[in-house]
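Need residues for this backbone.
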């Protein structure tokens, strides 16, 4: 450490020394990307038909309001409620671990994807194009596949990007449901609580770098 001169307070010692934080960071990276990827994929599969249900059903406003609840509830309260409902003390669907992490992330990812899609839907003439397609002889399925979804592409991509990045950086809810499967943000908290500040700073910088790289990749993909 350049300030104290102590080897035990250096970044290299804390990452590769007895604490072995580096391997924990790599494991947390794998768990973070796996949970964020699966949660985002499942949430997108749920969000796409939900958008059409909201726009075409008279109870759509009620459904939209219900979907917004996970966005305004504190993440720690959301994680606790999911743990009590679906965990070992409730319906016993999953024990604390990666599958409960994924379930928790799906809950707040669905509205994150739905809202950009709804904004795209409301800001376009999709109903007009759908009516023209049906008039020309296309059935409902072909109309959605060939007309509606391409027009919603930008909203879908925006929602997926927001969902994945939020899932990757989620701390409060994940902390309560993760069990032994630790993601990167809770690992940083654990490092700080263990007074391994240099290792925590390295992990934080590592997470910021990952987020920046992902942002550049997503921007490249969405501008094509």
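Answer:
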């Amino acid at each position: 450490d350049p300030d104290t001169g102590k080897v035990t307070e250096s970044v290299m010692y804390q990452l590769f020394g007895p604490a072995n934080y580096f391997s924990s960071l790599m494991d947390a990276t794998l768990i973070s990307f796996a949970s964020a990827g699966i949660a985002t994929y499942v949430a997108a599969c749920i969000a796409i038909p939900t958008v059409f249900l909201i726009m075409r059903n008279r109870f759509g406003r009620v459904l939209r309001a219900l979907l917004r609840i996970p966005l305004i509830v504190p993440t720690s309260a959301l994680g606790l409620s999911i743990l009590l409902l679906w965990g070992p003390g409730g319906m016993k669907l999953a024990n604390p671990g990666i599958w409960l992490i994924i379930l928790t992330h799906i809950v707040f990812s669905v509205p994150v994807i739905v809202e950009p899609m709804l904004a795209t839907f409301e800001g376009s003439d999709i109903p007009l194009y759908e009516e023209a397609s049906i008039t020309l002889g296309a059935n409902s399925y072909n109309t959605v596949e060939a007309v509606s979804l391409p027009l919603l592409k930008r909203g879908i991509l925006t929602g997926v990007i927001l969902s994945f990045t939020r899932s990757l950086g989620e701390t409060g809810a994940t902390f309560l449901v993760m069990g032994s499967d630790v993601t990167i943000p809770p690992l940083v908290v654990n490092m700080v609580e263990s007074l391994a500040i240099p290792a925590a700073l390295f992990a934080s910088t590592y997470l910021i770098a990952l987020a920046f790289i992902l942002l550049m990749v997503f921007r490249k993909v969405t501008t094509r």
